[in-house]
Amino acid sequence: MKKLSARRRHPLAALVVLLLALACTGGLYAVFAPADKAQADETAQSLTIEEGKKLYTVGCASCHGTGGQGTSDGPSLVGVGAAAVDFQVGTGRMPAHTSQAAQIPDKRTIYSQAEIDQLAAYIASLGAGPAIPTEEQYSPEGADIAKGGELFRNNCAQCHNFTGKGGALTHGKYAPSLEDVDPKHIYEAMLTGPQNMPSFPDSTMSEQNKKDIIAYLGEVNSDKSESPGGMELGGLGPVSEGLFGWIFGLGGLIAVAVWVAARTAKAKKS
């Protein structure tokens, strides 16, 4: 007993007891504490993918296959990425009413954004592909509008016309109008190349360049935009302007020439 009492009075006894208490507390916390943030995020992502798979099975599998491998009615979705899903479903192009049309048009969406995110997460789990862009990526803030106009005219105007009004292509296909299109969807279209459009990955066109194009389209299609050349004639480009010149300009000259000839002939008779 005297030896035990002496040990209790040892100067390091309190420190040893404290260390033992901390060790026990840490061990109990590690055993009974909830999962850390990474584990919680992983669990939430798994649930999102599972919900997306359910939505896919009901609304998409009949055309794209039960595992996204594709069928004769729809292409494979393995590796297309979440951005392609967000664009196609977010613009109402998917689910398509028919696979026989020359081109799938945009229409009213049937899924909520939460459901679109779930579908996108499931498709992304099938294979790596472009992710849904963040607001910072597609926001026109800090963009160079003049540079965007140059890039758009060089890469996009051949199909969409120089202000994004859209235009006809071959075999019943067309380049849709880009007026009132969500900047996120414009970015996703450039990133993934839907339907007849070529894709512009970051290796071909940088994030900043995509932002510049989005800013240009927002500027030329805004209510405040003015046409410094006068009548914009729908903003459809040189074809419509040339046609206007031929019909009204040349037509007016012909009318004047006929009128002058008629007046001259009448004057000679008199």
From TrEMBL:
It comes from the Bacteria. Residues 47-127, 143-221 form the Cytochrome c domain. InterPro entries: bc1_cytC-su, Cyt_c-like_dom, Cyt_c-like_dom_sf, Cytochrome_c_Oxidase_Subunit. It is a multi-pass membrane protein. Gene3D superfamilies: Cytochrome c-like domain. Residues 1-30 form the signal peptide. Its EC number is 7.1.1.8. It catalyses: a quinol + 2 Fe(III)-[cytochrome c](out) = a quinone + 2 Fe(II)-[cytochrome c](out) + 2 H(+)(out). The chain crosses the membrane at residues 243-262. Keywords: Cell membrane, Electron transport, Heme, Iron, Membrane, Metal-binding, Repeat, Respiratory chain, Signal, Translocase, Transmembrane, Transmembrane helix, Transport. It is found in: Cell membrane. The cytochrome bc1 complex is composed of a cytochrome b (QcrB), the Rieske iron-sulfur protein (QcrA) and a diheme cytochrome c (QcrC) subunit. PANTHER family: CBB3-TYPE CYTOCHROME C OXIDASE SUBUNIT FIXP (PTHR33751), CYTOCHROME BC1 COMPLEX CYTOCHROME C SUBUNIT (PTHR33751:SF13). This is Cytochrome bc1 complex cytochrome c subunit.
